[in-house]
Amino acid sequence: MNDEIFDKYREAGRIAAAILNDGAREIREGVSYLELVESIESRVRDEGAELAFPLNISLNEDAAHDTASPGDERVFKRGDVVKLDLGAQVDGYIADTATTIDLGNNSLLLEASESALASAIRKVKPGVTAGDLGAAIQNEIESRGYRPIANLTGHGLDQYELHCAPTIPNVGNTGGTILEEGMVFAIEPFATTGSGHVGEKARREIYSQISSKPVRIPSARSIVGTIKDRRGLPFARHWLTDRKLDLALPTLVKSGVLHGYPVLADISGSLVSQHEHTIIVTEDSCVVTTQVR
Ligand code: MN
Ligand code: MN
């Protein structure tokens, strides 16, 4: 990796870390979901970066992929376990980072995913396997009486690529990718009081373009025009200012132009925490790009 690319990863990380940290402190009972999402998303653009994906805010048993819907009237409630997952990018070089805010009495659950992340980061250096990181994560979470979510993983990052090799498991698989200097990836342990597996809910607020087939319906063409500059990175339904465009989304999914991301959730009534950092492997350890500096 050359210095210019390294600096862009660092800049995206600096911006994402500071904004996530501030945003997390603004979450309390009664605060509007939609207002918080719009405020945090606009801060990324104000800093001169772009969003790598819509701000994910996922509550309680929801682990990932929820965000505000247009006109969303939800407010945060006492007892909520709130995951904030923010992605910023500079020229396509991505920082992906998440934290959990507890409006109830779940500090041990939060500590589980936070310690798991710290433990995995301490292990990173060339020659270590992705499975070794998964084992560290699983151990920290299970030692506190929770389960890691086995079917969610950390992932490699590349220019305008949100998910590529290596996969970083949240459980101790043997082997996996052998880490090398210059690799960029996100580590994101999830701890749960539930089953340790997520399934798909019907709710879909986040989409991405997966093919550039021509589309005929004018409203569908208009969406494709609006999101072209995303270069395949995800966008949210609440970013589309013309509400009539909503009607074209299912058509575009059916025709294979867009992919819709369902909200991913553990069993009803469970609670999930998540912590995530983006790291770059160095000669003897790693740089965490998304640590608050
Ligand atoms: Mn993330
Ligand atoms: Mn991620």
Give the helices and strands, then pairings:
Layout: H1 3-25, H2 33-46, E1 50-59, E2 62-64, E3 81-90, E4 93-102, H3 107-123, H4 130-142, E5 147-148, E6 154-158, E7 161-168, E8 184-187, E9 190-192, E10 199-209, H5 218-227, E11 235-236, H6 248-254, E12 258-265, E13 272-274, E14 277-281, E15 286-288
End-to-end Cα distance, whole Å, is 22 Å
Strand content: 25-35%
Quickly name the level 1 CATH class of the largest domain: Alpha Beta
Q: What general outline do the C-alpha atoms trace?
A: globular
Listing every helix as H and every strand as E from the N terminus to the C terminus, the arrangement reads HHEEEEHHEEEEEEHEHEEEE
How many individual domains? 2
Low-confidence stretches: none
**Distinct ligand kinds:** manganese (II) ion
Helix content: 25-40%
Q: How many strands appear in the DSSP assignment?
A: 15
- Calculate Rg over CA atoms: 18 Å
Name the CATH superfamily assignment of the largest domain: Creatinase/methionine aminopeptidase superfamily
Q: What CATH architecture of the largest domain would you give?
A: Alpha-Beta Complex
Features:
alpha+beta; 293 residues; Creatine Amidinohydrolase; 6 helices; globular; Arc Repressor Mutant, subunit A; 5-stranded antiparallel beta sheet; binds manganese (II) ion; 15 strands; 4-stranded antiparallel beta sheet; 2 domains
